[in-house]
Every structure is written in C-alpha cells, then in structure tokens.
Amino acid sequence: MVSRKLTQTVILSAAVLGAVASWQAWSSYSASDNVRPAVVPSVDRSMADRRATDSDQQVTAGSESERNTSNSARDMSVPRRVTSVRATTTSASAPKSSSDSNQVEAYTEPYRDIAIAASEMGTLSSINVKEGDVVRPGEVIALMADEVLKASLEVARRSMNVEGTLQSAAADVNLRRTELTKLRELRERNHASQQEVDRVQSEVTIAESRHLSVREELEVKELEFRRIEAQLEQRSIRAPIAGLVSEVHKDAGEFVSPSDPVVARIVQLDPLLIVFSVPLEHRATFQRDQAVTLQLGYADATVQGVVEYVAPTTDSSNSSIRVKVRLPNTNGEFQSGERAVLKCGTSVGPGTTAALATETPSSVADRNHEISSRN
Question: How confident is the model at residue 11 (pLDDT cuts 50, 70, 90)?
C-alpha cells in the first residue's frame, strides 16, 4: 500500500513539472514573436527608399504645375481686369435700390369703420338693412321689441296730463287768500280778532304748499315720460354716419346681450384713409394739409391725397412715424384694400433734410468748397 501511494505521488509530481515546463516554453515563444517585428529586414528599407523617390517626383510635378499655373494666370491678367471693370459698373447702379427705399407702401382702408351695437339688451323685432346697402345718418337699421315700453309711455303721458289735482289745489289757494283778505278788512274795523286772521294765514300757507307739491309731482311725471321716451328711442338702432353696410351680424328674433351687442358694421368709403409708416429721416418732409402724390393700385395710377395727420411720436420698433393721408373717393372709383405707394423724396442722411434748412454755413466748409471748385 505504501509503495502504491509513493508511485502515485511520483507520477503526480512528474505531471506538474511537465506542465510548468510547457508553460515556460510557450511564454518564451510568445515573447520571441513580439520582438520579432522590431527587427526590420532590408526589404522594408528598400520600400522606404522607394516611397521617398515617389514623394520627390510628386514635389517635382507640383512645382511644374505651379509654374504652369503662374504662367496661365499671367496670360489671363487682361480678362481679370475686364471682370473688375464689370464689377465697378454693377456697383454704379446701386442708386436704384436707394431710390426704392424712399418709397413707402401701405393699403387703403375705410375712413371710418364702426360696429353698431345695441345700447340695451333685448330681442330684435326687425332688421331693416342688408349687406351692401347705403345708409344715411340717423337711418333706422334695426328695431328691438318695445311693446312694454310703449305701454309705459302711454301711462306716463296720461299721468303727466292729469290737471284735476292741480286745479283743485289752485282753487283752494284762491279761496284761502280771499278769506284772508276779508278777515284783514274786518280786523281793521275791529270786527275780527287777530287769532282768526292768523288761522286763515296758516291755511293759506298750507294750500300754497299743497299746490306746489302737485306741480312738482306733475313735473316728475313729465320727466318720467321723457325717460321712457328716451328708452323707446334707444330700442331703435340708427346709423351714426353715412356709409355702406359691410356686415350684418344679427337677424330678426335674435337676442342681443351685453356680451354680444354688435348688430351690424358700417364703413365710410368717401374719403379713404391710408396710414404710412414713414422713415424717421423723412419726418420733416410731411406737414398737415399738405398735398401728396400717390401711386395707387397695381396699375400705379397717379392720384392726389392730403396729409391729415403726422404723428409726433416715433415707433421705436422700426424707427418710423405714422402719416395719415386722406384720399377723396367721391365717385367710388377706388376700393378699400388697394396698394398705395408714397414717395418720400431723396435724403442725404437721417435728419439732414431738416438740418440743412436751419444750420448756419461753416467757414471751414466754405473754404473747402472753394478749394475743391478751384481745383
């Protein structure tokens, strides 16, 4: 048994030693493979020499191409000068774009555009116009239901015209005054006492107060009648201006509420209004009631307008001012929404047009001008 165990131990040791030896041999072989590429054979050196020769040839070819390019550039120098002349000619035509910058474009719009609304809520009983109708100022456009107000107006009229109470109060005042006059005569002859005279005097004062109260009540009833009459008038929706009915928002039988009171829209097309955003440097060019020439429509028809308003403030977003131009349109030949072009005129620079009219000439500028003119 001991000999068998000894034999197994020897065999195991031999196997371990063999494995270690094989591992060392494999590692040494791998190291030799990694070091082997570091030794460059002569074939690699010849390849490097060949690459160097090729690069020298490429450099030589490049220098030759550069010489050819320089020669061709020297030959093409005349056409290049012609090209520069053409560029100068093109830059000389730049004033055309600057002249276009002096034109301001806008669109015609109604002189007035009014949304007619009902002043009171209620139901519309009738609509008296349709889109496209021409109306006059004060013409009734629509009517609202007013039966209750008409009944109230009749009651107020009857109450205002009641004169029985007033006549009764006036007769009582006259009776008391007559009685007071007789008692005073009797008092002068000592046929009546002073107490009776004072009593009748008080009755006269009470009668006069009652008569005044009746008259005040009648005045209040008259004011109530006028109030109901005004309310009844408000039930009639009228045109505030002369113009054209462009939209009708309601129909008969619809309810008009405070949140949606608009019934119709009227536009005034005679005259037309054009609002231009004029650059700030042309601010001094326009004045109120000044006649200006406009190019209207895509056919560029020449028309005359009148400056109605020049804004005193500047729009900081685009450095411009609002100029309102009124365009007469008596015969209705112009339409709202047409393109309009306003020529502002040429200007040297921002603010130069106004400054040249007020500045005093400089002596240095005059001397420079004389020298330049002499040369």
Answer: confident
Residue 357's pLDDT is 34
pTM over 0.85: no
User: From CA 61, how far away is CA 67, in angstroms rounded?
Assistant: 10
Q: How far is 41 from 116, CA to CA, in rounded Å? A: 104
Q: Does 69 fall in a domain?
A: no
- The residue whose two tokens read 């001094």 is 284
Spatial CB neighbours of 135, under 8 Å, sequence gap ≥ 6: 129, 141, 239, 242, 243, 244, 245, 266
For residue 310, which amino acid is it?
Answer: V
SS3 263: strand
Is the pLDDT at 41 greater than 60? The verdict is: no
Tell me the two tokens of residue 359: 């500045």
Kindly state whether residue 196 falls inside one of the protein's structural domains.
yes
| pLDDT tens track for 73-127 | 444 443 443 333 333 333 333 333 334 567 899 999 999 999 999 988 999 999 9
The structural domain count of the chain equals: 1
Domain assignment of residue 204, yes or no: yes
Q: What average pLDDT does this structure show over 296-309?
A: 89
CA 365 to CA 372: how far, in whole Å?
A: 10
Quick check: bond before 37 cis, omega within 30? no
The range of the structural domain enclosing residue 156 comes to 147-234
For residue 27, what are its two tokens?
Answer: 């590692």
Q: What is d(CA 61, CA 68) in angstroms, rounded to the nearest whole number?
A: 11
Residue 317 identity (one-letter amino acid): S
Angle in degrees, CA 53, 57, 62, rounded to 5: 145
Residue pair 120/255 in contact (Cβ under 8 Å)? The answer is no
Helix (H) or strand (E) holding 122: strand 122-127
Within a domain: residue 59? no
Taking the C-alpha atoms of residue 3 and residue 242, their distance in angstroms, rounded to an integer, is: 138
